[in-house]
Amino acid sequence: MIHGHVTAWALALILFIVALILQSGGKTKGAKIVQMILRVLYLVIIATGVGLLFMLTKISVMYILKAVVGLWIIGLFEMILGRAMNKRRTSVFWIQFVIAWALVLYLGFVELPMSIFHVK
């Protein structure tokens, strides 16, 4: 389950970058297709994340924080893509994205015992 979750969000990050590149290149139709695929991946990410939470015997506040930050990142993906499509400033969202991404990676790979490196 953990590997599926990591694969889904890694693929989502790649597709997010592809969508941004397509939008900046003026290929709006391709960007919209990639964005729709990305939205399906959001559902996979959320489903596998909820599945991971249900695998725990005791859910700590740190896992809830990681889930909330993960949802925040999904929201930032949508906000950045939407604002980029409308040619509006995205700098505030990029700052939030860097902070949220660093936090979720720290929680997922370092802090929490059910990370990909601590699985028995």
Automatic annotation (TrEMBL):
<dbReference type="Pfam" id="PF07457">
    <property type="entry name" value="DUF1516"/>
</dbReference>
<feature type="transmembrane region" description="Helical">
    <location>
        <begin position="93"/>
        <end position="117"/>
    </location>
</feature>
<feature type="transmembrane region" description="Helical">
    <location>
        <begin position="6"/>
        <end position="24"/>
    </location>
</feature>
<dbReference type="InterPro" id="IPR010899">
    <property type="entry name" value="UPF0344"/>
</dbReference>
<dbReference type="GO" id="GO:0005886">
    <property type="term" value="C:plasma membrane"/>
</dbReference>
<feature type="transmembrane region" description="Helical">
    <location>
        <begin position="36"/>
        <end position="56"/>
    </location>
</feature>
<keyword id="KW-1003">Cell membrane</keyword>
<keyword id="KW-0812">Transmembrane</keyword>
<protein>
    <recommendedName>
        <fullName>UPF0344 protein CHR53_08050</fullName>
    </recommendedName>
</protein>
<comment type="similarity">
    <text>Belongs to the UPF0344 family.</text>
</comment>
<keyword id="KW-1133">Transmembrane helix</keyword>
<keyword id="KW-0472">Membrane</keyword>
<feature type="transmembrane region" description="Helical">
    <location>
        <begin position="62"/>
        <end position="81"/>
    </location>
</feature>
